[in-house]
Amino acid sequence: MTIPSRTVFFISDGTGITAETFGNAVLAQFEMKPRHVRLPFTDTVDKAHQAVRQINHTAEIEGARPIVFTTLANMDVLEVIETGCKGMLLDMFGTFVRPLEIELAVKSNHRIGRFSDVSKSKEYNDRIAAIDFSLQHDDGQSNRDLEGADVILVGVSRSGKTPTSLYLAMQHGLKAANYPLIPEDFDRRQLPPALIPHRKKIFGLTIQPERLSEIRNERRPNSRYASIENCRHEVAEAEAMMRRAGIRWLSTTTKSIEEIATTILQELRPERLIY
């Protein structure tokens, strides 16, 4: 049964990424399409009062309590939301951080956002370096410094290599290169020569030909590149090559970027991983 739509607020004294990511994961369990309202950088009492007025106005207009996810480290700001808000409040810090403080017998630092003091963070700088590496090595643009890659993705054009590479870089700080498998590779019946010394880092992506044809037709409609016959040929050749090379691979047809990335991490288990 479809649940009537609600307005959902994500309130944070930082970027709000944590609140929204967690909130969306929870809401995905329900058949509903909520209206999202993001209120990042709610870091003063005055901004908290403004947020309360917006939430309460929404409650009056819609005749239903808005759902409010918060990640507020500032206790004064949180108190304004808790006492004045007419929404259903789900405070992530109150739910998880405070019980952990009791269990660990240590006070949390109540830091605002995970990006605080980024200029002093090695992890942040490593993540930026990984993104830069992945952009430079997107779609086989460069063969330089492949020994520095954590992951090398291969597959036919439009099988999901670029978004997966960038996700691995942005979310996990991994230097991910990606290379398209092209007709010349199929004629040689082997991987691109530059990749052969790095076989242990290679992971293959494939896709159902019918879905590949749909994706390619959005870019180059009615072309041989997008034809179902060509897509079937390329996918069959790519999968055969991966089998011959002993490369681990998966189909991206029905999988999200998050699922693809998680499988790659489980299979390759790169040493350098940022959480």
Could you explain how this protein is built, in words?
It is a single chain. By secondary structure, the protein is of the alpha/beta class. It has two domains: 7-104; 118-268, Rossmann fold. 46% of the residues lie in helices and 14% in strands. The protein is built from ten helices and eight strands. It has helices at 17-27, 45-62, 75-84, 92-104, 122-136, 161-172, 183-188, 209-219, 228-245, 257-268, and strands spanning 7-12, 35-39, 67-71, 88-91, 151-155, 176-180, 202-206, 248-251. The protein has a four-stranded parallel sheet with strand order 2-1-3-4, sandwiched between helices. Strands 6-5-7-8 form a four-stranded parallel sheet, with helices on both faces. Helix 2 (45-62) packs parallel to helix 3 and helix 5 (122-136) runs antiparallel to helix 6. The protein is elongated.
Beta fraction of the residues? Answer: 5-15%
Q: Could you name the ranges where pLDDT drops below 50 across 5 or more consecutive residues? A: none
| Major β-sheet annotation | 4 strands, parallel
CATH architecture descriptor of the largest domain: 3-Layer(aba) Sandwich
How much helix is in the residues? 40-55%
| Tally of DSSP helical segments | 10
The strand line-up of the biggest sheet is 2-1-3-4
Give the class from helix and strand content and strand pairing: alpha/beta
Helix-strand topology string: EHEHEHEHHEHEHEHHEH
The shape, in one word, is elongated
Number of strands: 8
In CATH terms, what is the fold-level topology of the largest domain? Rossmann fold
The CA-CA distance between the termini, in Å, is 37 Å
Q: How many structurally independent domains?
A: 2
